[in-house]
Amino acid sequence: MSATGALRTEGFPYCYENGAWTAHQQGREFDAAKFRKGLHKLGADADFTVVPDIVGAGLESLAFSLSWLDEVLASSPRALLPVQDGVDLADVEPHLSDRVGIFVGGNPRTNWKERTLPMWAKACRDIGTWCHVGRVNTQRRIHLCAAAGATSFDGTSATRWAKSLPILQRAVAQTSFVLDTRSGR
After folding, report:
1. Angle between helices 165-173 and 139-148 (to 10 degrees)
2. pTM to 2 decimal places
């Protein structure tokens, strides 16, 4: 569920996302009032809520997200801090807990997301928290999420191009094997 969409769940499990990406795409400012309205209506039953961020702003975005963290945690069982280009694990790790995980964003014009995904997923597994990956719209990215051990991912390609749904469903259904080179096998 997005702060920029209809605030209804139709009874399905869901997460609540902040709407910053949509606002960025449309050249608008983040709508804090709209986000808060949805947070109070949907946050308590969401699997997680993506804390507000500033798309493409790296550490400035993280500081903005941290200013929202307590408010999100007061209304949602789990908050995910968006990370993007310019943010390192050392910047985020002190804030992670069983209730605070990571939303892996990143600039779509760089390979930062794919390059750092294994690090974020491992950090979340080590702490026992959620690692969600945004804008996963290809088989390749689905396989990268599985190989890294991400908890979940989202993407809009199936809602925009119905013909991509069977391809993405096959990618999700395919078993991923992780090679353990320490065992000598």
Report:
1. 20
2. 0.84
- The answer to whether residue 7 is domain-embedded is no
Torsion of CA 10, 104, 94, 100, to 10 degrees: 10
Q: Flag whether 12 is in a domain.
A: no
Domain assignment of residue 185, yes or no: no
Q: Is the dihedral of CA 15, 28, 74, 133 positive or negative?
A: positive
The position carrying tokens 């609540």 is 16
DSSP string, 109-163: TSSHHHHHHHHHHHHHHHHT--EEES---SHHHHHHHHHHT-SEE--SHHHH-GG
Q: 51 with 76: CB under 8 angstroms?
A: no
- Considering its fold, how many domains does the chain have in total? 1
* Nearest in space to 147 (alpha carbons), one of 182, 165, 164, 171: 171
Count other C-beta atoms under 10 Å from residue 90's C-beta.
Answer: 7
Question: For the domain that residue 125 is a member of, what is the CATH number?
Answer: 3.40.50
**Cβ 3 vs Cβ 16: under 8 Å:** yes
Give the closest residue to 69 by CA, choosing from 55, 48, 88. Answer: 48
Q: 161 in a domain, yes or no?
A: yes
Q: Tell me the pLDDT tens digit for each residue of 120-158.
A: 999 999 999 999 998 776 877 888 888 899 998 776 555
